[in-house]
Amino acid sequence: DQPLLEVKDLKVSFQTYAGEVQAVRGVSFHLNKGEVLAIVGESGCGKSVTAQTIMRLIPNPPGVIKDGSILFNGEHDITKLSDKQMEKIRGKEMGMIFQDPMTSLNPTMQVGKQITEGLIKHQGMNKEDAMKRAIEMLSLVGMSNPESRVKQYPHEFSGGMRQRVMIALALACTPKLLIADEPTTALDVTIQAQIIKLMKKLSEQTSASIIVITHDLGIVADMAQRVIVMYAGKVVEQGTIDEIFYNSRHPYTWGLLRSVPRLDKSADEELVPIPGSPPDLFAPPVGCAFAARCPYAMGICMEKDPEHTLVSGQHSAACWLLHPDAPKVARPADIGG
Ligand code: SF4
Ligand code: MG
Questions:
Q1: Which ligand minimizes its atom distance to the CA of 99?
Q2: pLDDT tens, 253-276?
Q3: Are the C-beta atoms of residues 131 and 123 closer than 8 Å to each other?
Q4: Whole-model pTM?
Q5: What confidence tens digit (pLDDT) does each residue in 216-251 have?
Q6: Could you tell me if the CB of 254 is within 6 A of ligand 1?
Q7: 236 CA from centroid of ligand 1 (Å)
Q8: Domain ranges of the chain
Q9: 216, 135 in Cβ contact below 8 A?
Q10: Alpha-carbon dihedral angle through residues 178, 184, 186, 189, given to the nearest 10 degrees
Q11: Which residues form the ABC transporter domain (predicted)?
Q12: In this predicted complex, what is the ipTM?
């Protein structure tokens, strides 16, 4: 079956007064129909820029797609569509959930009206049917009294409820693709769990494919089938949940697994942050971008950027340790799995 989304060698830069920031430096991956894919990595690794580029939400200027293609549903190369064509696809076939619901909610408009707007414009629904659908969506995301809730304004909802309104808004047009960028970071743990459960349930019901962007590996384990690990604007490892949690091969992934709290680990287990910080993307390093922070770095790591090596099936990592002539390094035992 054809994937819903095929990203090939995507490069995105930002032109600034200080020079060009190479935020995304040749990213390739695919998303299957009905699949939940997680993109993980520290902040500034290019995961949000990648997602926003897929939705063409990067302002140009300063953002520029330098190279690559994004094939959506086998027919459109998103990088080549006009703003007008893109607006249509976005309203009809894509939805986005942000960390801050107010990014997509209009504070001066009743939430029901906000949901019906897109349905009327992109789905050609009449006002009445659209309002029915808005009420149905609010009830689907777990809101009681949706008939009166549609008349309320965003500020009349709690943080968790606003998140639900945003999910209802994003899913009202039954998008084929839903992108959730740090969807629960601002919420407390109980509400986080509810929202994740809700997104999972809705994706199963509507068979939407989801890209979830997060630094929280607990969410990844709970929601996704496959994971992409990004570092300094590149994909450094990709694989299924099991492959990444139990058989990861990239030292950066090892660092992430150690440094990020997980819902399935007890709170007193020690978290070890990765020492150092990601490289400056004004002038990315010549070799492996992780070399300056990597305890296993070798001479070649400073000279040449490693290609992806296939580990098995769909599992691959970009690290010189996977070269047949590299010294054998075992995956550290303390990251368990
Ligand atoms: Fe570390 Fe070298 Fe692998 Fe980069 S290529 S992660 S520096 S061992
Ligand atoms: Mg981000």
A1: 2
A2: 999 998 866 555 555 666 788 889
A3: no
A4: 0.92
A5: 888 888 889 999 999 999 999 999 999 999 999 999
A6: no
A7: 10
A8: 225-337
A9: no
A10: 170
A11: 5-257
A12: 0.96
